[in-house]
Amino acid sequence: MKGRETLSNRFEDGVVALLPRLRRFAIGLSRDWADGDDLCQITIERALTRRESYEPGTRLDSWMYRIMRNLWIDEQRARGRRSQTFVSEEAGVAIGALGAQDAAVQLGDVDRAMASLPDDQREAVLLVMVEGYTYREAAEIVGCPIGTLNSRLVRGREALLVKLGEAA
Amino acid sequence: MSLTREELAAFADGELDPERHAEVERVVAADPELAREVAAHRALRARLSAHYAPILDDPVPEHLGALLQRQGNVVDLAKRRESQSAVRSGIPRWGWIAGPALAASLILALFIPRDTAYEGYAGKQVAAALNDQLVAAQPANARVRILLSFRDHSGAYCRAFAEAEQGGIACKDAQGWRVIDRLDGSNIESGVYRQAGSVRAELMAHAQEMAKGSALDAEQEAEAKRRLWQ
């Protein structure tokens, strides 16, 4: 059982090492620090219960990101059903501002522009332009063809360029 | 040579195969407009990655790392059982509704006064917020923000709030909003700078001790307000 223990510890160590990046993706997806940390928490919990399905030697980061984005989509659907928890788009945007360490701080342009994107485009933009995945890797995480990922990415970034000014 | 928008972006990202990359490179070099678009794509990437980079430097909240430490302890079974029951009785997830308001307000640096002797009831402004504001519907720039609402073991409605660098928990009784717990940014004699995450965890922990059940959702909160928190 010794070998198994070592493996098991390596799995946890691997996830621990990924935590800062997982948080960045979670906060980017949910556009909110607290929601992002909740998303991280349920992702870790899910990863621990599903660890048997992780194949050692394959990329742990992609595996975790996939779990996270799937949980996020589930949560989005659940939220859609719970209409009573609806927060107006404007309030949601303001609350979700990454730059809102102080309530008085102006909502950042980037937060605003990212908030205006459809979920699938925002996800593609985050995976490639923030997390640094190749198109192929990002498509695998999302579970879509590369061409689809590419076109979501282009639509997302063109919308961002328009909103942020071409000089970005 | 025809060049799609997708291809141009892929070129900017270095995603084309070497042969195609070289072709596009020649076309772009000869066309200032295309060159400008490529530069814009790259500048956008740099701006986005700079925007999210601070999250990597923010300390990971302890409770996230703890999930993995506990689970990682596979050697000592008794310890493991103990830690699992600790997980089960741990801070409940307050639901997504509590999150947004917390993020906006409690990222302020707060300090816990060591000599709090705050007695009494919420002042006018805080009381007004406690009476009127709903977590999901309050203005983003509200001076006093409500973080979450719950019922304590006596059945009284309690609400956690934040105002500038202060925050706390108040419960409604016949007199008004009695302040139970106060985090005060003006008292720094303990000298401990608290990370926003740990303050939040602290306040959540206090709320959890006090609460019977979980935080009110938007509907329950609106209903409680209609009943004037009685």
TrEMBL record, chain A:
Transmembrane segments: none annotated. GO terms for biological process: DNA-templated transcription initiation. It holds the Pfam family Sigma70_r2. It comes from the Bacteria. Keywords: Sigma factor, Transcription, Transcription regulation. Residues 17-82 form the RNA polymerase sigma-70 region domain. The keyword Ribosomal protein does not apply. The keyword Transcription regulation applies. Residues 109-160 form the RNA polymerase sigma factor 70 region 4 type domain. GO terms for molecular function: DNA binding; sigma factor activity. Belongs to the sigma-70 factor family. ECF subfamily. NCBIfam families: sigma70-ECF. This is Sigma-70 family RNA polymerase sigma factor. The lineage of its organism: Bacteria, Pseudomonadati, Pseudomonadota, Alphaproteobacteria, Sphingomonadales.
From TrEMBL, chain B:
This is Anti-sigma factor. It comes from Croceicoccus ponticola.
